[in-house]
Protein 1
Amino acid sequence: MKRFLAVLAAITVFVGAAARQYVNNLDIKVVVQRDGSATVTQVWDVELNEGTEWYIPVENLGPMTVSGLEVSENGTSFSSVGNSWNVSWSRSRKAWNCGMVPKRDGAELCWGIGEYGRHVWTVRFLLTGLVQGYDDADAFNFMFVPPGMGAGIGHVRLTVVPGFDCEPWTYDNTRVWAFGFHGDINVREGAVVAESSESFGYSSRLIALVKYSKGMFAPSVVKGGAVQDLIDKALDGSSYGEDGAGAWFFILFGLCFIGFFIIMIWIAIAAALGYKWKKALFGKTKIEGWYRDIPLEGDIFAAEYLLAKGGRFSSVAPAQNIIGAMFLRWIMDGSVKVQADPSSSKRVNLSFVAPGVSADAVEEDLYQYAKTASGANLLLEKNEFENWSKKNYQKITSWPDRAVTRGMEWFRQKGYFVRDGVCTDEGAVQASHLIEFRNFLKDFTISNQREAGEVKMWKEYLVYAQLFGIADKVAAQFKKLYPAEFSELARSAGIDDATLWHTIYWSNTLSSRSWNTAVAKAGNVNGTGGHSSFGGGGGFSGGGFGGGAR
């Protein structure tokens, strides 16, 4: 027992050390100009309790240059010392100052930490020569987040947009790949967007490779040669090609570092203890208790936004869940009718007879996608939505992001944001109700607030349970405790008890298969978006190794 306690104490010390610096979120926006130069803006949401400064390496630049570092926090700009930054200065000397440490092929961007605790820094600098000219295209292959940082990163999002008048970026003129992290990269609404789906560990990095049609830019840096050579070098060892060995190499490489294990232990312990929600949105990291009413005025997109963005370590809202929830909502309110599938007693077909379902463009678009997939007979049968999603993968893979954006807009319109992603006190209360409602549904059998409730409310209960990924469990609890009411719920949707079970199962299966098909199609070697590759990414510029507090 004493030995166990000693080991536990040692782990606690390591976990505490890992928690001294942590990046809740890193948002990077890159605005590129016709000459290939780019203004890079980073917003770091950081919690730390060590070091005197924060630094990021921007090296391996070749013909590129980095300059014009600006840092601000809470509207206050830091004073710049240019290239005269001294890493040996005291914490008080570095506070509210920023500067660069020139390196052989780039620089370290540095600024003072000031007081320990939470900081949200806005960092801006200029890169010349990001987009470079090749004989047949213009392109960049740049590391925007380096490996070896002293801090884990909960979530990263990179957005690249044009800063000049040009034809809209689409897959017709823009191809994209991403390396070094778990997530995806796509071209959406005229922008290149890469986003992580899992936390960044010690060996994680974010490399984006983007190829543009020749003539869109007039790059000041001309490399010459075929851009395919750059692409081939980046794809070597990636999961985009047939040989995915490189991915395993980098995974094993990361596992060799004790820092990676420390961060994972810390995350696992924090999650197990319930400290898994972002304080910026919920006002607290641990949310207990029950809430039995439909939260957020029944706006399911607002709920999706919180689940997608509110986890401290990763999203707790798989994209297919919101798709399945919408299907179930349409079935529950009668917009979509359920028919037995003559070829299988455990599968149902869905009849899309309504011309539309909502004035909300995001919801209506998904309905029209499914209706189109149902064909001339307007009956969505086995594999039809899956096949349609494979052909129209860009629409399907971008739809959940649109749902999240629509949910974020709800919080803005309600005045629940101090700023985007940070709730007011009232906003945090409303946000917490969603997790309390989730707790109530998960704990329904032991809840002291348990009662049958109205059928209309239980329809919404099941829709939200589908969003949470627990619809089958919630339905089982309801049927066990209130069989008569469960039957009434089924009849109100025009089906029997058994068909309601199959409908819940099928709405989940339908959305999962269609989503996975679309994602698999998107993540191909041709650069038409989809999942990133953890391995590969060779031939990049920028980045370096290290970063964080020191």
Protein 2
Amino acid sequence: MAKNISEKTVQDLEFTTVLTHVAEFCISELGKEKTLAITPIDEREELLQELNLVNEYVSSFINENRIPNHGFENISQEIFTLNIENSFLEAAAFLKITTVSETVNELLKFFKKFETYFPTIHQISQEIEFTNVIIEAISKIITSYGEVSNNASPILKEIRKEIAKIRGKIGESFTRDLSKYAAAGYLDNIRESVVDNHRVLAVMAMHRRKIKGNFLGSSKSGSIVYIAPQATLNYDRELQNLMYEEQQEVTKILKQLAATIRPFVPLLHSYLKYLTHLDVIAAKAKYARSTNSLLPAITTEKKINFINAYHPILWKNNQSKNRETIPQSITLNEQQQIIVISGPNAGGKSITLKTIGLLQVMLQSGLLIPVDERSETYIFDTILTDIGDNQSIENQLSTYSYRLKNMRYFLRKCNKNTLFLIDEFGTGSDPELGGALAEIFLEEFYSKKAFGIITTHYSNLKVLANELEHVTNANMQFNERTLEPLYKLFIGQAGSSFTFEVAQKNGIPYSLINKAKKRVETEKIRLDKTISKLQKERNRLQINSDNLERQKTKGQEHIDRLAEKELKVQDKLSGFQELYDSNQKMPSIGRKVNELLNNYFQTNNKKEFNTNLQKWIAAEKTKHLKKTPVKEKTKEEKRKDKRDIIKKQEVVKQIEKEVLQKVVEVRKEKKIEEKKEATARANYAYKINDRVRLIDGNAVGTIDKIEKKNVFINYGFFTTKAKLEQIELVEKAKK
């Protein structure tokens, strides 16, 4: 837990519910565990990095470079076992390690390739070492099916050859006995069965003594007995010995492999940590996409400006019930340091307060939040909350005693980098005495320049908020006719509690309400009535203001459309003018050319004609340049062009370098393949009917005869003699 955001604050704001929703998007158990353990981050740099990681992952959903699958199996137990000296893992466990290594390598290559798209993820990926040593070491020993390869050692290869032979002999022996005893009429119609992984003969009970072998059971009715033939049993004992030897050799090989991989245990730990972190980042990103969340601007100036902010838990619940969630916009800054929200119960005061607190805690825990993209906020050192009726039965504390203890904690922790959220401020005691103490607390928070939001019904706190320069009253809007909440926050005016109006709406007799009014101090009723009247008036003004705003918007749209049409008309007129000027110019050009040609025909002086033509063209060019002068590039533009050319040349050089490296690698691989082929050719034992050709020739023939180092090749029309080293195989003889 972050040192200045307590467990109580996290519980008050239901942050753990959000984490539960985020964890649903994880694809691994380790990712879920880490997600559910998320706490607010203390270090600013670490927090900004985490937010950028999530933001970059969100961007991968909308660009073409989708991040590869990062699914992985938990290899914690395998790493633990591997770390024990002289221990070994099963073949399938090594295969899990290979899969994890391949996944990490694929991700490292991807983030290196697309560093410009994912700079922060690439930065954390660089901390992981890229290596194929683990993969290559395991792939030499373990097959893709999770078994030890025959080629893992010469001894294992030989043992498995013997096992295959013995199994063949067991099969032949059993088939022979099966045919023999079936012909003698000793077997039942089913002929054979399997008992304890052994093939057995299904013998009729009356003939059981006529067959040599081991009795391994009988049918339920007793009419059939199952016997393993004696010859098969002899081979079976030999097979068991070989299988024991195979197991011993496999264990030895796996221990050697474990010893090879053991130095990489710290790297495997880092693989697991990296993939788990990436799973958490991906879950946060998927949750952000599902709730339309984003990263607001993080400012160094102390302020909160949440525009169209949603409470994500409320939004999710309302969405499942097809209900609309009303967004809230709220601002806290040096001029509006504390907001006091008042108004009737069930109007949305607590939800507004919780929305701001939850979004701030989410952001400071590395989660994106559902707000408008123009929103911005600050990173607070401390977030304090006092929400709900918290009676402590264990400590025998009343609600008020508990809240006083909480206020003592607030006063000790509160400073200029604090955000505090208090629901139903001052309640739990005598209204007048509790209200007076609440005033003192509010003034103390104000003097410490802390930012905060409180909700209250106390009139004295509304009055105090009006008197303090940087404290603002606010209320949740209510429909005064239907007395239904509108769930919209209005900044700048205190709200009426609508106590008697709500009581009347809920069926309390009017006579009782009147009696209650008489018992309340006249001044309080007048104040509440005045506030109620002002709120109704403000609602009417708000409606008019909204209508005027809509009309203004429509008028502006109409003006914009007219301006757009005017631009189109101007463009057309300009085009017509150019066309007209061009058409007017054509006869003038024709007349001038005609004049020059007539002069040439009369004088037949080619030199004079060329001189006059060039002068005329130069004059026309000068006129054209005056009308449309060529814009010279500035020094900065020239320098930019030069930098771009250099950059392109560097990219080309880099590509050339990479291609050359690839060519060298391909050539090396080709040479290795050629050596392998040459070795295979040299070691090949030629047979009759093999199709071959001379190394320097193209014609293909068939080997008729082989004598020591000479072969006789039949080409159809003739036969020729050649040495073995002069020929190469085209196709082996068909069996």
Protein 3
Amino acid sequence: MTPYLAGHARTSILVPALLCVLGGCAPDPAAPTRAVARAPAILPLRSLRLYETGVGYFERSGAASGRAITSLPVPAGHLDDALKSLVVLNAGAGGKVGGVAFASSVSRATARVRAGLPSDPDQAIGFRDLLASMKGEKVTIATRASRVPVAGRVIEVTHEIDEVALRAQSVRERKPGEGDGARPDPKRLTLTLTLIGDRGEVRVIEAADILEIQPADPAFRARLDAALDALSTRSAQNARAVQLLGDASGQITFGYIAETPIWRATYRLVQAADAKADAELQGWALVHNDTDERWAAVRLELVNGEPDSFLFPLAAPRYARRSLLHPDEPLSTLPQLQGTTADAMWGDHTDSVGHGGGGSIGYGSAEGHISGSHRVGVPSIRMGATSVSGTSVRPSSVLAVGNLAELVQASGVENGAFFTYALPGGFSLDSHASALVPFVSHRVRTETIALFASAGASARAAVRLVNTTGQTLPAGTIAVFGSAGFAGETTLDRLKPGERRFLQVGNDLDAEVTPKDAVRREESKRVTFQHDQLEEHFLATTELTWDLENRGGAARTFHVGMDVHRNAKITGTDRVDFDEAKGHPIAIFDAPPRKKTARTFTVVEGLSRATTLGSLASKPVHELAQRPSLPAAEVAVLAQAEPRIRDLEGEQARAAAAEKVASDIESDLERLREHMKALGGDKGGAGTAAGPLVKRVIDAEDRLDQARRNKETASREVEKKREAVREVLKRLASR
């Protein structure tokens, strides 16, 4: 039985401390599962899968015997997840599961309202609020004055004025000449409870005299318990028994998801003394058991994948809002003459005669982006990036020089949506404990290198890593160890089987690459026309010379990033690689120890230069038609297009002149109108000061109309000339 609520003197500190803390949801006291007396048997946890999205798949199985109650211990905060994902995998031989039962969840505000307490979850609850929640309830009270409990129903809880103390206060605080009126000090208000006994007697009991008070209705006590549960700081973490219904027998298996800490990966790369030898990659996973249950010999799987998951409020009862319909005339639920008379309602009207009175009822709701050869003056150049107004340079879709990205020998392969790492044997971990467990141990192909983002950039000590594990490696930190111990650390992004990464782990002070010379030449190969763009496809050949210096005592391999398009070929280097992550090729040079050498190599790119039809000029087209490397048929088309482009340029110049004339007339007309407005407008005749201005305005308007017609005519001629150019250029092959 629920114990008595203690007297005001003993509970004014304890009760608010229990009731005023924040919490989650509480069990609904009306749920029938609260009446289960015997503790249900917990279905053992057998398997657990942890996902990168912060959820875990829990699988429980065990023997069920007939109608024996079996339960799944789910924290209250995870109950919604469990209910929307619960799946029966095995219902036992010859048995069936009829459903699951659980104590309904209610919010803090709902639990407080049901217990008759203030609904604001942040409002403190005092002894007076507890007493007020019992209005209308039958209670038994033990007081200081009488050890014999008093039984009855609570009528009201009020603050009464201590008249004797008030009069004494008034006498002490009265000043000479003041009247006897005194306002009650709130400290002088006495909390009282009005009770009607079983025989109809009415008692007024001071709260300070109450030693114990016990509600007689068990349902009220259950509602108060629910409010306390809802306000508990651990209400969301407390286990909630989800009980299985039905007549299952034999082995039974259930699965469900619940919120879990994400598992994270961290790696160790242990290299051999030989810079090109395979290294040992160790992958460790950090897992956390944040439940109140110890994991004992659980089959643990770590899933490298991100299934969609969401939160959805499912466990707590929900109520729909209905429209309130009422009679057109407001009607009261109280008798009109209850506690009054018609005369009292009418009033005395001693000063005047009239009508008065009235009221209203309110309702509320809430809704919830050069031709020839030349020597480049700046040693460091950006390959294939030349552009001028109206012209853009990009990889050619016609000239195939090579695909540097094909240097990647193996590509990542995914086996399905997820990659699962199963830990061998049973995994055990205490509740609210964490562990670092190995999930990968494999030799991988590595090479220690000096990495340069570009020629002239500072060198970085790096490792070229190829994922030869056959497994997808999730993102994580990675610490690199070599013959000298710790070499540095960095992060590793998600890496599929066969993919490679360049891991930068520190600064390399003994390696340097300095650009020395660069000579570039272009050779036009094709001309095409499509989408109103004239495209010149050309080979850009750049001869580069770099100084390489290795100040170290061992031979080194320099990897230098190059800003070159994929449609290119690089010759003269020792090797070429491709950085998949950054999308650019890497020139590789073998650098002998303690030596400075000069290396010259060549880059050939297949590029295209596109010029829009509106930006075409006859001189560049004439120069393009003189290129001997272009096919004769395409040169012929360009030769036919050149005079038409010249005509177009002339018409465009005339259109621009017409545009300027119209604009000048508009400006002049606006100025004349302002002058005329200052002289009184257009009302003056020829003899007034405004007369000459009126004539000039009219002449300007006529000239503007003609200028606009000339402008429109010029625009139409421009479009005709442009269409003539377009018809000729269409003869160029578009592929």
Protein 4
Amino acid sequence: MSEIKDSILTKNISEKTAQDLEFPTVLQHVAEYCISELGKTTILKIKPIDKTETLQQELNLVNEYLSSFISENSIPNHGFENISQEVFTLNIENSFLEASAFLKIATVSETVNELLKFFKKFETYFPTLQNISLEVENTPTIINTINKIITSYGEVANNASPQLKEIRKEIAKIRGKIGESFTRDLSKYGASGFLDDIRESVIDNHRVLAVLAMHRRKVKGNFLGTSKSGNIVYIAPQATLNYDRELQNLTYEEQQEVTRILKELAAEIKPFVPLLHLYLQYLTHLDCIAAKAKYAKDLNAILPKITSEKKIDFKNAYHPILWKKNQEKNIETVPQSIILNEKQQIIVISGPNAGGKSITLKTIGLLQVMLQSGLLIPVDERSETSIFDTILTDIGDNQSIENQLSTYSYRLKNMRYFLRKCTKNTLFLIDEFGTGSDPELGGALAEIFLEEFYDKKAFGIITTHYSNLKVLANELENVTNANMQFNERTLEPLYKLYVGQAGSSFTFEVAQKNGIPYSLINKAKKRVETEKIRLDKTISKLQKERNRLQKNSDNLEKQHSKGKEHIDNLQEKEQKVQDKLADFQELYDSNQKMLTIGRKVNELLNHYLQTNNKKQFNAELQKWIATEKTKFLKKNPSKPKTKTEKKTAKVVAEKKQETIKKVEKEILKKVVEVRKEKKIEATKIAKAKADYLFKVNDRVRLLDGNAVGTIDKIEKKHVFINYGIFTTKAKAEQLELVEKAKK
């Protein structure tokens, strides 16, 4: 299985060729038919297959699956959940999965086993599908092991272990007691008229009594909340609370037992991790095969005959992307038929633009790439083809901005690559061959390239407007002209390829149809004959143009110098602007400060006008002024001016430093003494705690916890601690005394 996927790689059909032929778009269409994300991801990564045996197997797989759509023996559903994460977790030591995850694994195993049984039973109809199924082990062990422990609802079964069965039996009893006690209290307090009409409710998964607020003190239990209006309070009856604690303990024990069981189950399933990986690969591959088959069904695609004889014979071939678009618009797509063989090695297609030349060329290339990638293609069942080692394409506007190459330079690089790679097992496809340069010079070079491809026995299709290439096609024995047919009266394209005759570009006819005056068209026809006479004049004009460009270059150099000076001036101006901005910022900060002072004064004044308390006003004003002065002095300490002041300040600073050092030493001594005392005290406390014998009603906490609880009972080395809403068990050495029991 993995070999099939790994071998779908080749260096002979490049990514550029796939992009030129829009192969990724086809893969996107195929991926839409997948039922799993793994399948979609795998489809989008498909590349042409370079091993003939692997390719033939993949094509047969798709063809067999396609046949199941019209057969009574339809292939069972192979939908599956991605269990990659679950399988990864299983491989981790001492790990476990949730019960629902094990159920997913069992379901995947059941799906695979069902498919393996089906293909074995119908091996005659699906020989290739059965062949790849032989690589996968059919075993019920995984399913049986999981089904013993996990129910169909994704829960651990009661009989998974005797302990779990007993715990759940006890839980059921306690829940029964809770129900009985709650019903008694409900009847009791209901009869007393303490309850609201709704009688009961549920809070945090607990049944509670809906008690009228006026009677809340008459009902024993825990208060858990009130209604929005406050007329009803919700109380959990005291009798049920006692049972709740016991239920919580049992629930905790149940969880611990379930975890233990799941860990044991994970250990049992772990040896099957490699097989589970294989199951995922198998189902993903089958999903891809099914998606290709569904795509082929909608496209009316088939598996043509693949011959060892080098040839392409596509009858009524459709471009799949064009067909899909036209179908959405309810437009008929015209099929093309084309043959390449030893006697018709290269086809040169000519004719006017928008006649379908490029689409015809792309159709042949795309269908060949699809077939060599394991996809069926939309052609007549009488079609035949062979497998090519290399498919080379030069299609579309190949101007390379990144590499600063013109269209013609880029195409010349492509031709160099073509000449290096081209062999007798190559299919090449070139759109608008020779364009991008002088028609005569470019045409002459194109002739040489075409002759090279011809001599290397390569198969190919090219489109062109160059007359010399049409002439060359007539001269070479195994090269054939072809044209896209046009209605000569209406000049409407018929999108039909006619092999055996070169096509006219209908340049003047198309110009006339598009409204160009007839007199101008006649002038153009006359100029065609005198075109070469004008060549010398053109060269002379080019020489003058070159001189003019040189002068322009000198002028540009001068302008560059001026531009540099201008930039320096701008930088100087920018610095001045920055300085002004700094001044404005300082002014803004000053204004903000004045506004703050104004607001404070205004606030004090308003308070004074309201209270008319002059004494309070003066006190608050003096206090605020003192605060502001302190802030100012902190930010702007006064600097000593005279020598005497400076000397005094220096002496004060030195005394201050001495005082700080002295205080630091004293503090360090005290810290050392305090630490010694604390250590002695801690030792005494630890000894007292170690020697202390815990008693009932002592308040304690676990050494590694924060919650404080009360000791309910002590049995040998175990202590039962009540935390209010639940009770837990711990050893005495795990506890820390918080408060002794009150006598």
